[in-house]
């Protein structure tokens, strides 16, 4: 029965040129609803940390989200062959921008992560997350399954993943480098790469750990030491996580109440509108509010997985799953960071934290996932790709 339904979708996708209106109707609208709900929670949290005002963060958050929601709809109606054709050029442009950051990037907090052009700040590492997914998805689109785990077939994806990881570590930006590595490894696993390569990689990291530790910057080693013993420097490197845990514990089951979080309102909580916004939510809305936020992210990831399963082309499946992996690792690292499970690495909570770059990454990923889903029953056609490019 499923095979019959799938074959009808394939015929439908190949024989019918969908109009823009038809494509919009075929979007996975529950994903859009969940994304809007998360952005709405972000606006409420930013309103609270600004002492009951939409300025200076909430109004900008709304404006960015509305603009990016429009971008999602535009990206969604563009044929996925266009994105496949752009995958490699976009990847190499992102890599060049990443390299440029090392030389002309704006420095803040001892790291270079931003390019400033005409008064506009750009963080190339965010766009690299999306282009990395596209490049890997394109690579595995027509690679025969029997060749996926061949050592020679792994050279290209290893370079695609390793280049941005290496450049980002030089900035230095450990959190972003981790996301590159985890998302890349996840896509390779979903493409069918043998698990033995992962076991070998874990063993190599274990053997090289003394050299990795020696290569870390002083502040990175300090963060790890504080993570292992937060009381060692409670007013210095351990201040962020100490205040975060106080806010988390103060929320209890139902929270102190909206606009009543003392850690955020009295400015004890650092980065309360960006990296540590989840602790503001936990203090004011308690365990119940925190669970709702995490449940919405879980629903978003599950819906993306369901979208990927329904697609018949490898490029579409890996593009959607890559977006799901980006969302998952963003959320996992942020929540683990603010709860003290992992060291502080400076990763925001997407769609909720203030900041345009992380939101842009997620929304572009959602748009690409929608584009793939609209043509979910259509097999990728090399001739059509050649006609478009």
Report on this structure.
The structure is a single chain. The chain is mainly alpha-helical. Helices cover 70% and strands 3% of the residues. The chain has 16 helices and three strands. The protein has helices spanning 2-15, 20-25, 29-49, 58-77, 80-104, 124-141, 155-170, 174-191, 195-215, 218-228, 239-251, 262-265, 277-309, 314-338, 356-374, 382-388, and strands at 106-108, 111-117, 120-122. It has a three-stranded antiparallel beta sheet with strand order 1-2-3, with helices on one face. α7 (155-170) packs antiparallel against α8 and α14 packs antiparallel against α15. The radius of gyration is 22 Å and the shape is globular. The two termini are 37 Å apart. Mean pLDDT is 84; it is low at 1-16.
Task: Map the helices and strands.
Layout: H1 2-15, H2 20-25, H3 29-49, H4 58-77, H5 80-104, E1 106-108, E2 111-117, E3 120-122, H6 124-141, H7 155-170, H8 174-191, H9 195-215, H10 218-228, H11 239-251, H12 262-265, H13 277-309, H14 314-338, H15 356-374, H16 382-388
Antiparallel strand pairs: 1-2, 2-3
Helix pairs in contact: 3-4, 3-13, 4-15, 5-6, 5-7, 6-7, 6-8, 6-14, 6-15, 7-8, 8-14, 11-13, 13-14, 14-15
